[in-house]
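Table S4 entry, CBS domain-containing protein.
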Amino acid sequence: MVSKKNAPHFGHENPHTHSQSVEAAVTGPSKATAETILASKGHDVIAVRPTDSIHRVTEVMKEHGIGSVVVKDQNGHMVGILTERDIVRGFADEPDNTFDETAGDLMTTKVVTASPDTPLLELLHRMTEGRFRHIPVLDGDHIAGMISIGDVVKFRLRELEYETLKLKQMIVG
């Protein structure tokens, strides 16, 4: 075993230069925000009215292939969110009457939201802690978009693939 005292010395405490270090090649925590994700997926938001029947809401969700809708009042202001989970709970509570209920009856009114500058990792944290899969992005009073947990995971996987490619390029030269 070579002791540190007898180890070869190349004039640096750290034998790796900064440009050769793994830390320099990996970007670290994602700097992406809600707006970064919306810029790649789009800002479209599907909305229903509080008076729309659950039957109508499920048709809208099926038509658009989505798992949640924003509920807006007659002035276009968000008053809630209605998700597949809310509808399933409705069926568990009132199996015979759920289709006759309205979006206003089953929607979640205390909606956790994000702003366009909310960091990606904060989005993940809010969704994980709150145990929900969709988060509306508000820019002031305007709904700028809707982000799902799938959108966040997909974006982060693309970032990790890019980081892996950069590391491979660094190793190969």
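Residues 1-27 have pLDDT under 50 and may be disordered.
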